[in-house]
Amino acid sequence: MISDHAEYEELVPAYVLGVADPEEVRKLREHLRGCDACTRLTGRLQRAASLLPLELEPAEAPADLRERLLRAAAEEAGTDSRSKPVIPLPKRPPRAPRRLLPAVRRATALAVAAAFALGLGAGLGTRLIPPAASEARYTLQGTGAMAGAEGRVADLRSDGVTVVWFSGLPQPAPGHVDELWLIPRQGQPQAAAVFVPNAGGSQVVLLPRSVAGLKALAVTEEPGPNGSSQPTQQPQLIGSIS
Amino acid sequence: MSGEGREADTRLVADLAVGDVAALAALYDRYGALAYALAMRVVGDPGKAEDVVQEAFLNVWRKAGTFDPARGSLRSWLLATVRNRAVDSLRGRAGRERGELGLEEILELPASPAHDPWAEVSRAFERDAVREALDRLPSEQRQSVELAYYAGYTYREIAESERVPLSTVKGRMRLALEKLHSYLAGKGLHDDL
């Protein structure tokens, strides 16, 4: 039974080092709500404790740990509605992209697999899964305002799904979005999706179709939120499908 | 942490909070080696350390929406998670069974809102400073802290191990942490409340 302030003080080191028992923790937390001195003490000691692991020399983990971690997350994301590896914003209804949504759900697992095939992650250059015979891969390169950006495309032809992973994208101007275009061998560009890169300049877009037979894929910046029906500028990020 | 580092963490947490797998990869690339070193120090087994690291990163990824950068750094949160899971693994118990600090509790602790000292010095400086601080402790104080932090020993277990009264262990541990705080604050790794 903890009865006085001194006893609570004695508990603080064990608390910040994570070795107090649950009942002690519960009582100390209650005490902290009304005791400024113990709260300050806890803050000081907590900071000291949190610095302890910095004494350690970083150790290189096995190379496949990163891959396993990201695979586990991707698998979880594929069954989790909060997931964000696939966010194709529908173009204005009722055009084709709007009809993509059920397909998006059906194809989430495929998209995740494809995203990983592209090396989804901060390393960006690592191919975690070798391409299957039914896959085709392409790269989009940025120019102009999107210089340094890249789009990596995995066309899972046998499944009728294409995943495009963008990286290094600048943030669109206020009120604008990025728009992905399918450029056929003949005829006008077709709007495929609008999206906004995340804070890190990345985004993944899933298309419920193969891009086989097209001439190119391209991205432009267009007025938001729905983008444009035809590009209003020269492609800023483009790659041929061949 | 410097303003730039704090901003970077804030952006990273925002991406983690919406389930961005690429953000998890960035988090791993930033802190994975330190997390693995910590897990290895505690469990001493590569396979278990890998499991601990994977679980800890996934947990932070899942709970990133609860993170408030004004209350502490992303690194401290992550490393506390690694440590707790590693100790659980070492001692064969479920998380929280012994009232260890969890993510939420860590974040509830007071922290300096304006100045996180970590990122203002290099990793090497940080490492040297913490090692110096530990080296300056009397061996019995250092031993008490390390048994608790890296092995999950309670006051009573340390008292039995060291064959000293319980009150002695409590005093040693508090003195050690106060000295660490004071020394590291002087090195710019702390700021007083």
Describe the structure.
The complex is a heterodimer of chains A (242) and B (193). Chain A is an alpha+beta fold and 242 residues long. Chain A has 6 helices and 8 strands. Chain A has helices at 5-16, 22-34, 36-51, 63-77, 100-106, 108-117, and strands at 135-142, 150-156, 161-167, 176-183, 190-195, 203-207, 216-223, 237-240. An 8-stranded antiparallel beta sheet of chain A has the order 5-4-7-8-1-2-3-6, covered by helices on one side. Chain A is elongated and about 85 Å long. Residues 80-107 and 121-131 of chain A have low confidence and may be disordered. Chain B has 193 residues and is mainly α. Helices cover 70% and strands 0% of the residues of chain B. Chain B contains 9 helices and no strands. Chain B has helices spanning 3-17, 21-43, 46-63, 74-91, 103-108, 123-135, 139-151, 155-162, 166-186. In chain B, helix 3 (46-63) packs across helix 4 (74-91), helix 7 crosses helix 9 (166-186) and helix 8 packs across helix 9. The radius of gyration of chain B is 17 Å and the shape is globular. Chains A and B meet through helix 1, helix 2, helix 3 and helix 4 of A and helix 1, helix 2, helix 3, helix 4 and helix 6 of B.
Looking at this protein, list some descriptive labels.
heterodimer, A: 242 residues, alpha+beta, 30% helix, 22% strand, B: mainly alpha, 9 helices, 70% helix
What percent of residues of chain A are in strands?
15-25%
**Largest beta sheet of chain A: what is the strand line-up?**
5-4-7-8-1-2-3-6
Number of helices, counting only DSSP H or I runs of 4 residues or more of chain A = 6
> Whole-number radius of gyration of chain A?
25 Å
Number of helices of chain B: 9
Radius of gyration of chain B: 17 Å
Instruction: Tell me, briefly, the overall form of chain A.
Output: elongated
Q: Structural class, from secondary structure content of chain B? A: mainly alpha
Strand portion of chain B: under 5%
What is the share of helical residues of chain B? 55-70%
Largest interface: A-B, 66 and 77 residues
User: Topology as H/E string of chain A?
Assistant: HHHHHHEEEEEEEE
